[in-house]
Amino acid sequence: SDIGSQKERVVTEEEWLQKWEMGNIGFHKEQGHPLLQKYLDVLLNGRSGLRIFFPLCGKAVEMKWLADMGHSVVGVEVSEQALKDFFSDHSLPYCEEPVPEISGGKMFQSTSGNISLYCCSIYDLSSSIIGKFDGVWDRGALVAVNPCDRQRYASLMINLMEKNSSYLLVTVSYDPNKHKGPPFYVPESEIKSLFG
């Protein structure tokens, strides 16, 4: 399970912000991700009114889709522009407030209260700040996290999950020697060692 030349690769917060500023967001899916629709039953497991976490959420349209189904959605994203775009794209009114526990952190919440998006580094979050979740939709987060931070990321995600949580994870499979990432290649063996 050699991840090739990607092992040492680091993408900075500034690089991610620049991608959003330049509109270089090929990872964003306007129609939502077909795998979430396909495996929605696995995520929900017959339950309603869930708290669902979107790590590195960008402006994912699935957040509104799940909120419209009656779930409570929480996301985190380093780009304030992405979060504001999400609300404007869906014509959703929202309010903005500081997050006292996080220096410079902000929370954007729909006025309906069922969508709360944090603007900060994901590593600034903890269950004491955002609570725990019944479900996680990880569509582009693990594959965007720098390979050297995967263990830290997985530990945080496990800490944010309720006992009977469902975790949907999308990864990409390719030869890591031919693409420097992101998205990064995460072999199945590593996913097993990270999440057990």
UniProtKB/TrEMBL annotation:
GO MF: thiopurine S-methyltransferase activity
Subcellular location: Cytoplasm
Keywords: Cytoplasm, Methyltransferase, S-adenosyl-L-methionine, Transferase
InterPro entries from the UniProt entry: SAM-dependent_MTases_sf, Thiopurine_S-MeTrfase, TPMT
Record field: catalytic activity: S-adenosyl-L-methionine + a thiopurine = S-adenosyl-L-homocysteine + a thiopurine S-methylether
One GO process term, biological-process aspect: methylation
Taxonomic superkingdom: Eukaryota
Protein name in UniProt: thiopurine S-methyltransferase
Protein's organism: Serilophus lunatus
